[in-house]
Amino acid sequence: MNHSVLKSKVFFFLTLVLTLMILKSGHTQEATRYPTRPINVIAPMSSGTSLDLGIRLLGKEAEKYLGQPIIVTNKAGGGGSIGYSAVASAKPDGYTIGLFIGAAPSFIMPFLEKLPYHPIKDFKFILQYLNINLGVIVKGDSPFKSFKELIDYARQNPKKLTYGTNAPNSIANLIIEQVAKKEGIQLTHIPFKSSTEFQSALLGNHIHFSAGDFSFPMVEAGETRLLLSFMEKRPDDIPQIPILKDLGYDIPCPAMNGLFAPKDTPNDVVKKLEESFSKAMKEPAFIKGVKDLHLPIFYRNSQELEDYMVRNYEVFSRILKEMGLVK
After folding, report:
1. Strand order in the sheet with 209-212
2. For residue 116, what is the domain's CATH number?
3. pTM for the whole structure
4. Which DSSP letter does residue 235 get?
């Protein structure tokens, strides 16, 4: 080989290696300095809700460890899919992350409609910090004192027992239908547009029970009665209330709050976010704030959360196929 050609190739190779080293060094330095400006958290719900207030409480405490403001931007609509889509398409630099709300936009909607994101492949998961209270509620003066009494009535009166949720094929709707299948009973589902609507229908005696979100103050005041919690463990506020597993129902309810980032966000940036928000969860102001909102703290680190998301994605794929909702 010509000596000058060989020298040219060696020079090109060394230049390429040096360029890659410089780029890598620059990236590492940038990650070390991160963050150098405000971080935007996209929340896929309206402002002023308990979940919106929860992320604002956490963000305020996380600012102490990140050294930059945390700005919450609400992008409600599409059952959460609008907010998820905005996170998936954001620049993966750690300055736009998202609040995820679990069930519908992660484990149900992706199987029922075409969405501009994949709930697992298009994100990196940072941490989980809350569970969401969901359960079965009856009116305060209802004759049903336990969930078993509801089931017994439904068994003797097919299709006469009516219940409301915030949407067809919502997580609450799927759970109740799974229970009905296991018990061999027939219920009449009446979907509403929001939990506020189905709670009003319940108080107006238009439905026998509701499934989904509920108001703790109304339970405490005796206006409504909680018969069953969909939580993974018994609520601290009302530990006497049974959960699904207590009654023999092995049905998942992945309704939780956590943080995620676009899939190509650098791992060291994700780690910095995970560490900072984990510390923020231990701050007294956050703990007191979410307790006042009746939102139970529940922690999963980045890897635990990713495993949990993958597992539930597979579970709901099977459940929806068994229900004939997808092929």
Report:
1. 188-191, 162-165, 209-212, 135-139, 224-229
2. 3.40.190.150
3. 0.84
4. -
Residue 198 maps to a domain: yes
Calculate ∠ Cα 98-293-49, nearest 5°.
Answer: 50
pLDDT per residue as tens digits for the range 133-179: 999 999 999 999 999 999 999 999 999 999 999 889 999 999 999 99
pLDDT digits (tens, 9 = 90+) for 11-69: 555 555 555 555 554 555 555 699 999 999 999 998 988 999 999 999 999 999 999 99
- Residue 259 three-state SS: strand
Residue 96, classed as helix, strand or coil, is strand
- CB 108 within 8 Å of CB 255: no
The number of folded domains in the chain is: 2
**What token pair was written down for 4?**
């000058």
Q: Examine the domain organization and report whether 113 and 140 are in the same domain.
A: no
